[in-house]
Amino acid sequence: MTPARLPRTLVVRLDSSGDVLLAGPAVRAVAAGSSYTALLCGPQGAPAGRMLPGVDDVLTHDAPWVGLEPPPVTRAATRQLMEALTAGRFDRAIVLVSYHQSPLPIALLLKLAGIGRTAADCEDYPGALLDLRHRRRPRRHETLAALDLARAAGFQLPPGDDGRLRVLPPPHTTHLTGPDPYVVVHPGAAVPARAWTPDRAARAVAALSAAGHRVVVTGGRAERELTARVAGRQALDLGGATDLPQLAGVLAAARAVVAGNTGPAHLAAAVGTPVVSLFAPVVPAERWAPYGVPHVLLGDPHAACANTRARHCPVPGHPCLDGIGDAEVLAAVAALTDHPADQGEHTERGAAV
Questions:
Q1: Under 8 Å CB-to-CB from 25, ≥6 apart: which residues?
Q2: Which residues pair with 68 in a beta bridge?
Q3: Which three-class secondary structure state does DSSP give residue 223?
């Protein structure tokens, strides 16, 4: 099939930057079989979408059925989306959702916009809204589930593509970090239950520094108070100093990244950096663990909050993450970096993958 006959395809992933990054391999598969590939993202995911290889354009819509603080439903916003979808002249669409989400609201709008063939994972009866109703395999990682759907829709990764996460080459950031080797600690997360408390993060930074690691603390503009508190006098504070591509550059040059289950952990995986994943079991690690890079999962997978999707820890003291000892953190970093510092007591709660 010649490029002129390949479809114009829209890939939909409406939630966070981490979810968009996990969709990257599926996007590359779609791009390999399309003449034009656009990505429809929410405002939080759009910056990550612009970093994905194979994307020709990124459309943005703040969907009322997605997100932690969804906007109200308005005719104006819906009309604007419909106009953008219609102008795109798309032949096909693939809607990527997590196992707990429904693709049907956007599928209805895609049909009204005249998109010829729409595919999605869907447990609910879709009526005429989906042309391909795909069933997600149980306990499938988000990246592999997205690839499964792409393949079912007729899109394959090109030869030589290993299916790992990937972003466009990030900028060099030595002017921000300095030239000496370092470990990144990213203390924040959009969902507080998935991160250390600030005091616990600060103690980990102090322990890493005392063990001989140079530590760089990262965070967004809204997290400057947090990163300053966590970095203290022990680490370099880059809170609010980077946009997403620059953050990718900082993570790419790190020896390892210590982070919760949040977008920067997946960005670290996308630039090939090992991850110490502080993984609260409010969602299953088998679906959202760092993908395609060496990593160590730390945290109590059997905590009382397991599989609750809780945004705030329901257990006093946040034991599933704050209960992780400094020795466990040092051992995990050492395992991923071959650092000569004392690794301390190894724990069965850490699992290298």
A1: 143, 146, 147, 157, 161, 163, 164, 165, 166
A2: none
A3: helix
- What is the distance between the alpha carbons of residues 160 and 157, in angstroms, rounded to a whole number? 8
* Enclosing H/E stretch for 166: none
pTM, to two decimals: 0.93
Per residue in 36-55, pLDDT (tens digit) is 999 999 999 999 999 999 99
What are the tens digits of pLDDT across the range 56-77? 999 999 999 997 789 999 999 9
CATH, domain 173-338, list 3.40.50.10700, 3.50.50.60, 3.40.50.2000, 2.40.110.10: 3.40.50.2000
Enter the tokens of residue 101: 């989400």
d(CA 8, CA 23): 18
| Per-residue DSSP letter, 179 | S
* HSE-CB for 303 with a 13 A CA cutoff: 31
Residue 5, Cβ neighbours under 10 Å: how many? Answer: 7
